[in-house]
Design a protein that fits this description.
It contains three helices and two strands, in the order ααββα. By secondary structure, the chain is an alpha+beta fold.
Length: 71
């Protein structure tokens, strides 16, 4: 999908955190540590430190719980 489609999707869902489009897979490769699975969620603070990597799908309550645990 285009960047614009992704931005509209995030807006429609009320997502306010930054979303990145990784067209060439470079960011995925950097954070995946050899895992080749989608979906994958990476929690990164504003200093760029990776707090958690979650492999596979998670529900909203599970993601919120992770956020509360690490931030």
């Amino acid at each position: 999908e285009s960047k614009e489609v992704g931005q509209q999707f995030a807006k429609d869902l009320g997502i306010t955190y930054p979303i990145i489009k990784d067209s060439n897979g470079e960011i995925f490769d950097y954070f995946s540590s050899g895992f080749r699975t989608v979906p994958m969620t990476v929690f990164i603070n504003k200093e760029g430190f990776v707090h958690a990597i979650i492999i596979g799908a998670r529900s909203e309550p599970q993601l919120r719980k992770t956020l509360l645990e690490i931030f």
